[in-house]
Design a protein that fits this description.
This protein is mostly helical and 358 residues long. It is built from 16 helices and two strands.
């Protein structure tokens, strides 16, 4: 028997990796178009700076390691392009353009994301971290105060500003004031591409039809998040006048970057595990981290961090001694333990937080 060692992503399609990467670019197109329509100059600047920065880093890495310009293949270009597009779309629409800060914050964050999240591991197919998520986290941790403005968006007759609608919704009573339609169509404060949920759903349908992403990863991440938020929403609605549990869940799903991260980031085949059971555990764990950060920390978001935490356990789930393409007892036990922990945390939310924010 001959064993062939290959790097990620492990493609199970009739076409090749290049077409798989092109599919992701095509799936991002509706979101990019929406960003260009509603934030034309901001989106153009962020996208161009991000793409230029990541493509340059990718090219220099290939040239230095391969000593040949021709070694820079289409797959290298598309891989860096996808990371750059995702990174630019999860950044705020105004990261300090008026002061000139955005012109170096965006490319520096992009460069650090692809270098520390991908190139130091050996380049395309070898990285364990999502470069876009890492670049966003680095930029926001370093220059968060300069990236607080994502423009003005109407909530009915009111105007509000902020990096994300989750900041507005950090006071639970405010959630009842936001029309569901505004959340769905993106008339909310959000990063460049995160608020356009219809465009994101179009991209999701395309990726699933093309089998570019594994539905297990998306469904486990999305389903776990919704389930845990539903439990938390029941407690929140009891303690918050005028707020129904379904309003709470809708707000948490559609505001901020959850849906974008669930479609385009957690499903990255390179930074996720390879077997079907492991991908389910991977998605469940990532969703639990996102819920925990949103409900139990001072950060209103948490999706980017949850993806990086999930990326860290992917190699453990793929460890040869216990990795299996078939469901084993340990898979079931792991999911059961995670379920108990998640439900217990949601039920304990009032005691842990000392009451809900009214």
């Amino acid at each position: 028997m001959e064993f062939v060692k290959e790097t990620s992503p492990h493609v199970k399609r009739k076409d090749n990796l290049t077409w798989m990467l092109l599919d992701v670019v095509i799936a991002l197109a509706p979101v990019i178009l929406a960003a260009l329509v509603f934030h034309p100059l901001d989106a153009l600047r962020s996208i161009l700076l991000s793409v230029a920065s990541m493509e340059l880093c990718e090219f220099l890495f290939v040239y230095i390691t391969k000593k040949d310009v021709k070694a820079f293949k289409m797959q290298n270009f598309l891989s860096a392009l996808i990371s750059a597009l995702i990174y630019s779309l999860i950044m705020p629409s105004n990261p300090g353009w008026e002061s000139g800060m955005g012109y170096w914050i965006i490319p520096v964050g992009a460069a650090l994301g692809i270098i520390l999240g991908k190139l130091v591991f050996g380049g395309t197919g070898n990285n364990i971290f999502n470069p876009a998520a890492l670049g966003m986290v680095i930029a926001r941790l370093s220059w968060g105060g300069l990236m607080a403005n994502s423009g003005l968006v109407f909530f009915g007759s009111d105007v509000t500003a902020g990096a994300t609608a989750l900041t507005y919704g950090s006071t639970y009573a405010n959630m009842a004031n936001v029309p569901f339609l505004d959340l769905l169509i993106g008339r909310i404060p959000a990063s460049l591409g995160e608020g356009f949920n219809i465009a994101i759903l179009i991209g999701l349908v395309y990726l699933l039809l093309r089998k570019t992403i594994d539905w297990r990863t998306f469904l486990s991440y999305f389903g776990t998040f919704v389930f845990l938020m539903m439990i938390a929403g029941i407690f929140v609605s009891v303690n918050t006048a005028g707020l129904a549990w379904h309003q709470f869940v809708s707000y948490e799903v559609l505001a901020g970057g959850f849906l974008f991260g669930a479609v385009y980031m957690i499903t990255d085949p390179v930074t996720g595990p390879t077997s079907s059971p492991a991908r389910v555990i991977f998605g469940v764990f990532g969703a639990m981290i996102a819920v925990f950060i949103r409900l139990f920390t001072s950060s209103p978001e948490g999706v980017g961090y949850s993806i990086l935490f999930a990326n860290m356990i992917a190699p453990v789930l793929d460890y040869p001694s216990w990795s299996s393409s078939k469901w084993k007892k340990w898979h079931i036990i792991t999911l059961a333990v995670l379920a108990v922990i998640g439900i217990a945390l949601m039920c304990a939310t009032p005691a842990v937080k000392g009451g809900f924010k009214a």
